[in-house]
Amino acid sequence: MSKILLYYQFRPIADPRAVMLWQRDLCESLGLTGRILVSKHGINGTVGGPMSACKRYVRKTREYFKGMEFKWSEGGAEDFPKLSVKVRDEIVAFGAPDELKVDENGVVGGGTHVKPEELHELVEKRGDDVVFFDGRNALEAQIGKFKNAVVPETNTTHDFITELESGKYDWMKDKPVVSYCTGGIRCEVLSSLMINRGFKEVYQLDGGIVRYGEKYGNKGLWEGSLYVFDRRMHMEFGEDAAQLGHCVQCDAPTNTFHNCVNEDDCRRQILLCDDCASDASTAHCGGTVCAEVAAEQA
């Protein structure tokens, strides 16, 4: 049986390169593949492989990263084509490495952590005053989000600071704002950036959408599918998940992303239904050049 591990920890790392080399050697010895980033602020990783290897990886990694929490997910090494372990300025690329402060307890000055059940208590107490703020790229929210969530116009994580400083979200600064993302890591940083920019009451969903979905499935405040960064592309928290996305060609409901057929020049991921994805003439993003390429391949 194979599994996928998702994890992160914010803490000062004096020698990120040494940690990178250790993690690379550890994964290679265990036959794990995936992606790991290390910086002076901490570590962020997703690895997959046999259950026994994953368990050994957890034990070894916790020898250095005390108290590290790991999220287990279905899948395995086949979901990742290779192993990549790198040192970066940030383990989440907001473009503000010097603004982020961490200590042995994690991010300094971040939003208040709320567990899934505490989130429900907050909503019951504060009602419609609570604002859900999506901490992911806008594309991810096309197939799933919290009900009535605010989705910033972001193509990459770097876009968040510009969005926060644009003035578009100033109306939220005196409201209880719940930031959320896939596993929680992006909101560790995002919530601190928001507080630094005048948002007075900021929360972050502990464990992210993954933990919330594990507890409440499709019966709570979450709607749709969860975008994931491996070959699965999306996952659901039950068989009755709503389909929020629509095919860019025919508008049919779908939660499946595909690369535009013009892969040489277009890097866009687009929502396509099975019929449009299987027909070269419609397996494109809608751009003029991409449509011409699709017509040539049809």
TrEMBL record:
GO terms for biological process: tRNA modification. The keyword Thylakoid does not apply. The keyword Metal-binding does not apply. It catalyses: uridine(34) in tRNA + AH2 + O2 = 5-hydroxyuridine(34) in tRNA + A + H2O. Keywords: Oxidoreductase, Transferase, tRNA processing. Residues 126-221 form the Rhodanese domain. Its EC number is 1.14.-.-. Pfam families: Rhodanese, Rhodanese_C, UPF0176_N. It is an enzyme of class 1 (oxidoreductase). Belongs to the TrhO family. NCBIfam families: PRK00142.1-2. Catalyzes oxygen-dependent 5-hydroxyuridine (ho5U) modification at position 34 in tRNAs. This is tRNA uridine(34) hydroxylase.
